[in-house]
Structure formats: structure tokens, C-alpha cells
From TrEMBL:
<dbReference type="InterPro" id="IPR010836">
    <property type="entry name" value="SapC"/>
</dbReference>
<protein>
    <submittedName>
        <fullName>SapC family protein</fullName>
    </submittedName>
</protein>
<dbReference type="Pfam" id="PF07277">
    <property type="entry name" value="SapC"/>
</dbReference>
Length: 234
């Protein structure tokens, strides 16, 4: 269940939000949305792949696991990476758009909300804390990232740069897992692009994130090794 409310310093003056990590806070997720401007930070730890939505469009995601509900970076209360995607950092906050700008919303039913040891959102005088200011910046970057992603995906499709892929993980004859339903950058087609196409991608700031997405696939091996370590002994 969710209970979204516009955040304000009267009703939510004493509200605190936990920044701890753990499955109990909803961190047991297989992937999270990302966007081109974030690829440089994301590719340092996670594979970046492209997921098809219900409307047939694509969205980039950082991959944390090989099956639903699995985060191989989550070890109890520890997230084993120095960077966590902004779409995860922003929980339990959302951005709402109005005619005059953005509003910060909060999901009051989220497990992070109401923890007495969590981060305060407002000072005694009603002003936002540094934590809330950070969240506002995160939401702003996410909103801009969602908008830039649409043009980026259209550029990839224009040049036929997305291809589906499958990853098989096998321990023995009775135990295996298969990752399906995702797309990656087709490196052969990328390398075959002519100068005009490469210049077009570069001028639109689409070339660098594309190479970042390609580089991130080196972490698929790391993901499989994490999977093996977690499940090899049952």
C-alpha cells in the first residue's frame, strides 16, 4: 500500500526517515531505473541494461540481481557498493509537478517513514534540513534524467543499437538460473556507425553514455560471481 502526501513543515514537522539499508526497507530489488547522466557513476559497479515497458518503449536500469526480489549487493544491512542509484536513494520521496514548479511528496506507508532514529526533515524553525535539501536535489536530477532518457532511447532506436540478450547461470544439472527480457547495446553496430552518425550522437550527448553502458557489461561477470557465492551451497 502507498499513502502519498505533499510534504510540508506543519503536518510533517517531526517526521523522520531512515537511511539504513536492508530488505525490510525495500532494498531487496533486482534493478532500479537510471538515466544517461548517471551512467558514469552507475557503470563503476553495476551492469546497465535496457528494459522494455508495457508500451513497448525502453528504459535503462542498473542491474543488482539475476532474479526478481534479489539484490546481490545487499548483505544484511550493508549495500556492497560505493554508489547507489538516485532512484533508490530518493525512497520514500517522489516529485510532483505543478504549474508553478515541483513539489516533494512522501509515501507515508513506506517502511523508512517514522523511524525515530531516522533523519529529520525539518528544523525546529520549519526550514528544511540538509537531508531534505539533498533529497530535493536528487528528485530534481531524476526528473531531468527521465526527460533526457526519452531522447536518448530514440537515438539508440534510430541507429538500431539495442539487442536482446540472455545470461545463463548454472551450478549443476539440477540448479540453474536464466536472465531474460533485457536488451544491451549492440557493439558491432556501434562500431560500424559512420562519422555523421557518431557526430550526431556526440553533439546530443548520447555517445558517452552509450560507451558507459557498454563498459558496464563487464560487471555481468561480477554479478554472476556474486550469485554463485550466495547460492552455491544452497
Amino acid at each position: 500500500m502507498t499513502q502519498h502526501a505533499i510534504l510540508n513543515n506543519v503536518q510533517h514537522r517531526d517526521l523522520r526517515v531512515s537511511v539504513a539499508r536492508g530488505a525490510e526497507y525495500g532494498d531487496d530489488i533486482m534493478s532500479a531505473l537510471t538515466f544517461p547522466e548517471e551512467f558514469r557513476n552507475v557503470q563503476a559497479y553495476y551492469p546497465i541494461v535496457f528494459q522494455q515497458d508495457d508500451q513497448g518503449g525502453f528504459q535503462p536500469v542498473a542491474l543488482f540481481g539475476l532474479q526478481r526480489g534479489e539484490n546481490l549487493f545487499l548483505e544484511g544491512s550493508r549495500w556492497d557498493a560505493h554508489y547507489i542509484p538516485l532512484s533508490v536513494q530518493r525512497e520514500p520521496f517522489l516529485i510532483g509537478r505543478t504549474a508553478t514548479g515541483g513539489q516533494v511528496h512522501i509515501d507515508l506507508d513506506h517502511p523508512r517513514v517514522g523511524d525515530e532514529t531516522g533523519q529529520p526533515l525539518f528544523h525546529d524553525h520549519g526550514g528544511p534540513t540538509e537531508f531534505l535539501e539533498h533529497i530535493s536535489n536528487v528528485l530534481g536530477m531524476l526528473h531531468a534524467g527521465v526527460e533526457s532518457t526519452q531522447a536518448y532511447i530514440q537515438a539508440l532506436l534510430k541507429h538500431d543499437l539495442l539487442e536482446s540478450f540472455v545470461v545463463d547461470v548454472k551450478f549443476n544439472e539440477d540448479s540453474q538460473s536464466r536472465l531474460v527480457g533485457y536488451h544491451t547495446i549492440n557493439q558491432d553496430r556501434l562500431h560500424q556507425l559512420d562519422g555523421n552518425a557518431l557526430e550526431e550522437l556526440s553533439r546530443a550527448d548520447h555517445l558517452e553514455p552509450t560507451f558507459m553502458a557498454v563498459a558496464s557489461l563487464n560487471h555481468m561477470r561480477d554479478l554472476v560471481e556474486r550469485y554463485n557465492r550466495r547460492y552455491a551451497h544452497g
